[in-house]
Every structure is written in structure tokens, then in C-alpha cells.
Amino acid sequence: MAHAHMGGHVAADETANLIAASKVEGTSVYNSDGDSMGSIYDVMLDKSSGQVAYALMSFGGFLGMGENYHPLPWQKLHYDTGLGGYVVDESPDRLKKAPTITRDYAHDPGWSRRVNDYYGVPI
Amino acid sequence: MAHAHMGGHVAADETANLIAASKVEGTSVYNSDGDSMGSIYDVMLDKSSGQVAYALMSFGGFLGMGENYHPLPWQKLHYDTGLGGYVVDESPDRLKKAPTITRDYAHDPGWSRRVNDYYGVPI
Q1: Which of A1, B43, B87, B118 has its CA at a distance of 20 to 30 angstroms from the CA of residue B73?
Q2: Coil, strand or helix: which one is A6?
Q3: Residue A61, in any domain of the structure
């Protein structure tokens, strides 16, 4: 297993079961129609459990002050190898109306409950 | 809650319960004697469960080819607010001898078992 097999190799920042957070960042996000929605800007971890709680999706372009993110519960994402990105298990219409947070999200402690309620995912 | 309270505010990339992966990266790592060991270069996520499995600790300096990381099982780290970094719950001596991986770790699929065995943490 010292050498990668052609076609079956993985990048240096992942293994069969693991992926680097830095590799997740920048990955494209699609809705269930296969339309590109943006890309993952960062991943939020639960401090105590070490569980990935949210991927923050940005809408492309430079992230200046006031720009918004879509926090996507990790459970609602699955990786599509054909698309080479994450698909959100949510209708495109509902995804469009999903809660956003600003860059200053630390000052809005209620956002995670709002987001999970919207997606129907337990906190 | 639009404005931070002095002394009680958190950075924009964390909340009381959540922290951005990008914020974990670069955080200092100490041994149980309080000696600085390096800093977190990246975080490895379990693809299926979304659980943080390892923090990859680097030893400072520029990460060129051939440089090694210490993969630290997430369960062995705790955050010390006094030190402002993570402490590894392992004796400094054992930590020094802990398994390292190279940047090409994808081509060495056995490393996670080796690391977990060393630290006595179930996979």
C-alpha cells in the first residue's frame, strides 16, 4: 500500500476514512437539482464532543464585512463523487430560504437553534 | 446581542459551544508540563461520522516535503484557557516518542491504527 493505485488514489490530505478540514474548505456545495450553491468556507466543531456541527457555506467572491453564510447542519450534507462536492439534502426552494448568519455570528448565540429548527435536525 | 460585552465576548469564529476548524489550526499544543510542543496544522475528520478524529501537530517552521506531523487523537487533547492552547493528556516522554506521519500520509493507511494503539484510544 506504499504506492497509490491509478484511479483509486486519494489526495495527500485525505485517507479512505478521513479528510482534512482544510480540504473540506473550498469544496463546492450543490442543491439536489445539481445546481452549484456556493462553497464551504469553514467547518464549525462542537467544542466538547469534537463533532462537526455545521459547514458554513459562502456564496463566492471576497468575504468582506457584512457578508452572510449559510450554516448547513453536517447531517444534511453528503459527498457526491460524481459532482465532486457536497449535496444538501434539502429542496432547492427551502435551501434558498434557509437562515443565514453574518460574519459576526458569535454575537448571535441563537443561530444554531434557528438553523437546526429550520432543517429539522436535533441540536 | 449585536454588541459584544467587554470581557465576556468570544472571537467571531467561535461561539460558546462551537469553534471554527480554521480557528483550531495554528493553536499551540503543550505537554502536561506546560512546554510548548508545536501547533495544530490541520484537523482530520471522520468522513462518515463527522467526528474530529485527529489534530495534526506540526513542529513549527515552514512545512516542506518530508516534514513530519504528530497525529494526536482528539480525545487526548483538552483546551487550557490559562495557556491559551491544547494540552496533550500524555506524559512528555511518551509524547516525544509518539508516532509521526509524513505529508504523504494518504499512502500509509496503517497510521491511524498505529497512532490509536500508541495512545490507547479505540478507533
Answers
A1: A1
A2: coil
A3: yes
- Which chain B residues contact residue A27 at CB under 8 A? none
Contacts with B50 from chain A: Cβ below 8 Å: 51-52, 74-75
ipTM confidence score: 0.77
Q: Provide the grid cell at B92.
A: 512528555
Residues B26 and B42: beta-carbon distance below 8 Å = no
In terms of CA atoms, which chain A residue is nearest residue B65? A12
Give the C-alpha separation, B113 to A80, whole Å: 27
What sign has the CA pseudo-torsion A70, B15, B40, A66?
Answer: positive
Decide if B2 is inside a domain: no
For residue A6, being part of any structural domain is answered with no
Quote the cell numbers at residue B16. Answer: 460558546
pLDDT (tens digit per residue) in A88-102: 988 888 888 888 887
Q: Is the separation of the CB atoms in B68 and B74 below 8 Å?
A: no
Give the residue carrying C-alpha cell 506524559: B91
- Cβ(B43)–Cβ(B52) below 8 Å: yes
Helices and strands, counts by H and E, chain A? 3, 8
Q: What is the CATH number of the domain that holds B91?
A: 2.30.30.240
Give the range of the structural domain holding residue A91, as residue numbers without chain letter. Answer: 19-119
Is B12 contained in some domain?
no
Tens of pLDDT, residue by residue over B7-65, are 344 555 777 788 899 889 989 999 988 988 889 989 999 887 889 999 999 864 455 55
- Which among A80, A108, A77 is positioned nearest to A95, based on CA atoms? A77
Query: Model-level pTM?
Result: 0.76
Task: Write out the H or E segment, with its range, that includes residue A17.
Answer: none
